[in-house]
Amino acid sequence: MKPIIVRGGGDLATATIHRLCKSGYPVIILECERPSAIRRLVSFCQAVYEETMEVEGLTCSRAESFEEALGRVSWNRPQLIVDPQGKCLEKYHPDILVDGILAKKNLGTRRDMAELTIALGPGFTAGEDVDYVIETKRGHYLGRIISQGAAIPNTGVPGMIGGYGKERVIHSPCPGIFHQEKEIGDWVEKGSRIGWVEREGAPASVCTEISGVLRGIIQEGYPVTEHFKIADVDPRKESQAHCALISDKARCIAGSVLELVSAYEKGVLER
């Protein structure tokens, strides 16, 4: 079969890619020049920086062109190219396209780009700019397949984990270049400095609001704007063992995408 195209290689998209590949589907990932994933240990987009990225036994490789990716891709060898605008889709018409950018808005995905188009999260309307939307908000509707309408709008407030919501997420205090001092998996106390932002004048410290496990932190040397998401702290001690594992939320979303892909392939997908 034709390779499935997935726009985006962050942690939620990676879970979907991993599930598809493990189910026998070849996948080509379209990424931007400088991905800003926080959960880098479970994000195939890291292949932009490191040429390859392994997540739970599956290794993704960066290709220099779509043609190269097309020649190398297989169900157990997902390929990534830098193509944020999806220019390869001007010449290549896939059977299935998944938008997993999670930008909370549509960055150019159209329903006519593939026979089946699926989008993760808010910013899309099923039945209009894509065929289906998958709910990504934690709660009872997580993973719900939407055939008409949109996902729950972005609230800007992270889901509750261990009694904490917005306190878990750390943002940049100012624009500049971020430098990390802690690693993913480290235990950090409330008020701990995890890094700093290089700027004109004195550097700005980046500190935690709660104690917990540093579940994710942005790429060293990343240029940030004020209030840019930099890191994520999980208050649960046991989460130290989970930093390199796909999350429960991501697996749920991935299962819904696989359901649609399988139904499409078998010719039983309801439109």
From TrEMBL:
Database matches in InterPro entries: Se-dep_Mo_hydrolase_YqeB
Highest rank taxon of the organism: Bacteria
Descriptive protein name: EF2563 family selenium-dependent molybdenum hydroxylase system protein
